[in-house]
Each structure stands twice: as structure tokens, then as C-alpha cells.
Amino acid sequence: MNLESIPKIKHTEANNFFLMAGPCAIEGEEMALLIAEKVVAITNRLNIPYIFKGSYKKANRSRIDSFTGIGDEKALEILKKVSEKFDIPTVTDIHESGDAAIAAQYVDVLQIPAFLVRQTDLVVAAANTGKVVNLKKGQFMSPESMKHAVKKVTDCGNEKVLVTDRGTMFGYQDMVVDFRGIPTMKSFATTVLDVTHSLQQPNQAAGVTGGRPEMISTIARAGIATGVDGLFIETHFDPANAKSDGANMLDLSLLEKLLSDLVAIRNTINHL
């Protein structure tokens, strides 16, 4: 997929990886604008094409009392405001077929969660909006099998499709990234590595997903070294108090150093 097909995307001439980054969930307008402002400034300095990420609702929760959102329309309006204020594209995930047309009015990229990527009606509904569709690889799926999910999008006449690896289940409570899958998926779609979700530790006894944020740099560096086209990183200025996925998010204060290192690795690879 050509990055230029994403509205408002910047720095596409830089031959850099692109970045999807933001909070796991939209918790409010102030927090979303604060995070977006910080990441926009960093990516502009480093010439990284940037897409702001934020879930307008969280449907895949471990417990019934987990945070699910501030209200669909309210959160979608915040995503629209982020896009307009900073002149950047946005991405959010959808969970039901009816969500596709609604969310498409507010964002530029529709994301299919990993648990739902085999739901044909959902994938087709996203494809039929004409928006860019980001397909998260199921934790239970091989890289090779994702070509069938991609074909569901392209068979709808939509060539704007991304594939994102977010790790594979290892036992009951851990994730691993098989980097052999990166070149496999790149052979049929633009490929992203979801760094932070790859470090989740799901199915904890407490019903709250754990994580290994100290390994974010390791996974991200390996992703760039193996040639991913883009990175997906959830970040927050106060991960310990984030309302969703705080255990595996990157502290916003650490983002610039990480991205600077990754740009240096990418530049080295580009000159090999």
C-alpha cells in the first residue's frame, strides 16, 4: 500500500518507517490532545510519518467492570478534533459491522482487532468504507494465513490494507514475536509491528492483563532490523494510571529517545 493514500500523512519522502501511536483508549479530550501534541512534535523532528491511535471504545475486556470508554460519539469527536488540530490522520479499532460506517466518518484508518480478524462481515464492512484497513494478526494465526484476511479487503475493491503483527500466544499467559513472519507478511501487504501489545501477558488471575514494557526497545529494534514498514506503539504520560492496557504501554517521556534510536537503525539499514 502506498502511504500517500492516507490523508494528511507527512514525511513520506523520508524513506523512514511510519508510526501509529497514542493511548490505548480515549480517556478524554485533554489527554488525547496532550499526547498527540507531544508525538507530533517528535515525529516532525525525526521525519517519521505519523498516524494518531486511540480506541473510541474497548470491547475486548477481561472483566465486566473494566473501562470500556467515555461514550462512542464523544470519543470519536475527540479523534476528529485531534486530526483537525494537528493535521494528522487517525486510526481507531472497530468491533461490529455497524461500527465501520460510523467510525469512518471520523477517522482515516479502521483497525480490525486481532481477536476479530477472521470475522468476514466485519472485515468486509471496513473494506467497503473505502478507508485504509489495518488488520491485526490473530494471536492464534500464522503469518501465512493473514493473506486470506488481506484478500477479503482487496476482493471488495479496496487495495488500502495493512497487516499488523501483535505477537502469538505462548502458553496461557505470554506472547512471543516470531520475526520470521515479518518478511512473510511483507510479501503480500504493508506490514506493521505492534510493539506494545506483543509484550502483553494476558489471562492473569486478577483479570487485568499484565505486560513487559521494559522490553519495548528490544522488540522495536528487532522489528526495524527485520524490515517492518511501520510500528504501532501505545503510549501515555502516566501508564500506571491509564484506564486501559497501562501495564504494557510506553511512558511518553521515553518515546523520543526510542524513536531516535530506531531512526538511526533504519538509516543504517537503508545504506547497506
TrEMBL record:
Keywords of this protein's UniProt record, alphabetized?
Cytoplasm, Transferase
Q: Where in the cell is it found?
A: Cytoplasm
Q: Where does it mainly reside?
A: cytoplasm
EC nos: 2.5.1.55
**Keyword Membrane annotated:** no
Picking any one GO molecular function of the record gives: 3-deoxy-8-phosphooctulonate synthase activity
Query: Catalyzes what?
Result: D-arabinose 5-phosphate + phosphoenolpyruvate + H2O = 3-deoxy-alpha-D-manno-2-octulosonate-8-phosphate + phosphate
Q: May I have one GO cellular component term?
A: cytoplasm
Q: Which family does it belong to?
A: Belongs to the KdsA family.
What name does this protein carry? Answer: 3-deoxy-8-phosphooctulonate synthase
What species was this sequence derived from? Pukyongia salina
> Could you read off the lineage of the organism from its UniProt record?
Bacteria, Pseudomonadati, Bacteroidota, Flavobacteriia, Flavobacteriales
